[in-house]
Design brief:
Elements: H1 11-19, H2 25-43, E1 46-49, H3 51-66, E2 78-82, H4 109-116, E3 120-125, H5 158-165, E4 171-176, H6 182-188, E5 191-194, E6 214-219, H7 222-232, E7 262-266, H8 267-270, H9 277-292, E8 296-300, H10 308-323, H11 325-331, H12 337-348, H13 351-374, E9 377-381, H14 399-406, H15 414-419, E10 423-430, E11 436-443, H16 448-460
Parallel strand pairs: 2-3, 2-4, 7-8, 7-9
Antiparallel strand pairs: 1-3, 4-6, 5-6, 5-10, 9-11, 10-11
Amino acid sequence: MNRSDLPFLSAAELADLIQRKDVSPVEATEAYLERIDSVDPKLTSYITVTRDLALAAAREAEAAIAQGGYLGPMHGVPVAVKDQFWTKGIRTTAGSSILADFVPEEDATVMANLKAGGAVLLGKLNMSEYAMAEIFHHPHGTPRNPWDTSRNPGTSSSGSGAATAAFLCATSLGEDTGGSIRTPANWSGIVGLRPSWGRVSRYGVFGGSWSMDQVGPMSRTVEDCAITLQAIAGHDPKDPYTWDVPVPDYRRFLDGDVRRLKVGAVTERVRSDRLDPEYRDVIGKAIASLGDLGATVEEVSIPLMEMSGAVSMGIATAEWAAVHDRTFRVHLNELDHNNRIRYPTGRVLPAQAYYKAQKIRALLRRHMLDALERFDVLVLPTGVGAAPPVESVPGVPSKEQALAGLGARASFTGPANLAGTPALSVPCGFTATNLPLGLQIVGRPFDEATVMKVAHAYEQSTDWHKRRPPV
């Protein structure tokens, strides 16, 4: 195998070759660095490439494996992470010029876990400023979609979506508050998993919403997603909101057998008037495929899902403004235009509105959990359509209009983060213009295993994950 072919392997395939000593971690890292040099100028998916540190880590992994010290499937595998996670000795910008020179003195727990598993860090990936929705100005360059560089790769884990889809890392990490893993997975044509709230530590993560933020894997296959989640999941004493529950061997569940499972197709989403007609056809075929694989598929109605956009963004905007209040008061004029409006919007959001949003959230969670007692997973589209043009970012003229706009927001990802349940987006087709589309699979709290089981069975019955973007 030529070195230039290594980036096109799945993380699982590369890990197997590294374990057998057929491929050196140094060789793999050099191949990825060469591809980053060649392709990333078109995408701007990286903010910082840690070339020297990556090669040093790869040499260390190579030596350890040669001496019989193999640590597991992440050992020697080149990865990249959203620039939202503290990395000791490496600048961590959160996608903002405010933090352009911030260099943490310790690692986020997820970074420490990746290092403990022997992963090789290629660099830090581009993102929306402070992980908050659509923005006009990316101070480190505008990230672009590898399927069409005039298109958005997804908000806010933009670089994670673009870099992973373009084979610029073997697997990556993103962070999802209201859909920031699943939307880039949908628009960039990869697998993205938002784990259950409390499954993965958020210590050392620039957060926005204490009640919804969650770190998760963004990968090219479901198996790679399982490997990556395995490396980072688990209780962390540094994060009091993590749950001390067992972390299963996720790959053990990827057996392709869904014959005894019940799948609930959410009526309000699969039949939504907001869904692009082309996407509706793709989703219908994907859901039918699950039935062909032996699952029992029925429609289920969860009417409160229609309110999830307003509720999710209302809570996130208020909590985001509170979390960053001290910083934004001082550096308001350094923020992107939209964030200069969102911050005061969050500050003036009435307490009664936040209170009502939390009450609706509790009802929606109850309805979703009730549905998940009848069904093993729920399925729905990940979004309303394919990736939009980069230039189509909506402006926010004033805080009054921002407040009014919260209620009109459509969100197909919001229900899962409001309920705290795991949710995954897996490629399920393409538009006529060759833009990817995703199927979203939602499971019971802490049952990522079943979510990935269903996603893997569907994935392996199709060829969508084998397509390559034209970069």
